[in-house]
Amino acid sequence: MKKTILYTLIVTFCLSALLGIGIIVLDMWNDLTSRVLLTTVTIFGFSIPALCCSAIYGKEDKKILSIIGIAVCVLSGLHILLMIWEIIPDDLLFDDSNLNLLFSGIILSVSLGHLSLMNLIDNKDSVVNSVKMSTIGVSVILDCLLMMLIWVKDFDEVVAWQIYAIIAILIVLGTIVCPILNKARANVIQVENNNSNDEIIKARKNLKELLDSGYVTQEEFDRINDRINKKNN
Questions:
Q1: Which of 102, 112, 197, 212 meets the CB 3.0–4.6 Å disulfide criterion with 69?
Q2: Residue 3: exposure state from Cβ atoms within 10 A (0-12, 13-18, ≥19)
């Protein structure tokens, strides 16, 4: 599934580039070429979050999230394509409910793609999991606020724009920090799992480097070092 979406992404990207160059060079701007170009861009745009969702399809406990995410991306993209080609009746094309559905689909597609990427991080470390779950939680809160903003009249008067900005910053921060922290803390778990004498000597050296680098606290250093000593005995 992941390969299919990836190949679709590559093909549509190439088609979009070729069509864009052809339209510009040949000065072929008209209703048909504009719709064709928008179609390829739409497929390309929704293939990205769909690819993110497919990345966790192989994980049994995350398969439902993956399927829901891909389905939302496909349906949202299809909805926009129906609007581009004006298959939707004119009286409904720019109706408030139709536009609200359009924006909701875009937001949910991006959000589910983001949540899928966050769920790729699989670490038993409590620090990494805390950052991961906090980022996911804040992301869900932002999604709920945006849905309320779209569907509830005058909701923009209830929540100030500064709240949206702060939450967005926290999401970006967590999204950047979590993979870095996951990589750093993975070394700590590796140190704890070393068993042989050579590995234990190397583990103590690595543990000291982690302490000096600030990746672990003194308390964590003492706790892990005690575990290593118990294994050695």
A1: 112
A2: exposed
Q: How far apart are CA 20 and CA 36, in angstroms?
A: 10
pTM listed for this prediction: 0.76
Structure-token pair, residue 111 = 């959000």
105-120 CB burial, b ≥16 within 10 A, e <16: bbbbbbbbbbbbbbbe
Distances, alpha carbon 194 to alpha carbons 12, 167, 203, 206, 228, in Å: 47, 40, 7, 11, 8
* DSSP character string of 168-222: HHHHHHHHHHHHHHHHHHHHHHHHHT--SHHHHHHHHHHHHHHHHHTSS-HHHHH
Residue-wise pLDDT tens digits, 195-225: 455 556 666 677 777 777 666 678 877 777 7
Euclidean distance between CA atoms 77 and 113, whole angstroms: 14
CB 174 within 8 A of CB 131: yes
Q: Is the dihedral of CA 80, 81, 86, 88 positive or negative?
A: negative
Q: Output the furthest CA–CA distance in the chain (Å, rounded).
A: 79
**CA–CA dist 46, 9 (Å, integer):** 9
Q: How many other CB atoms are found less than 10 A from the CB of residue 145?
A: 16
The type of residue at 227 is: R
Token representation of residue 158: 């209830």
Taking only the tens place, the pLDDT of each residue in 154-206 is: 888 888 889 999 999 999 999 999 998 888 776 555 555 554 555 566 666 77
CA distances from 2 to 42, 51, 55, 61, 77 (A): 19, 6, 7, 17, 18
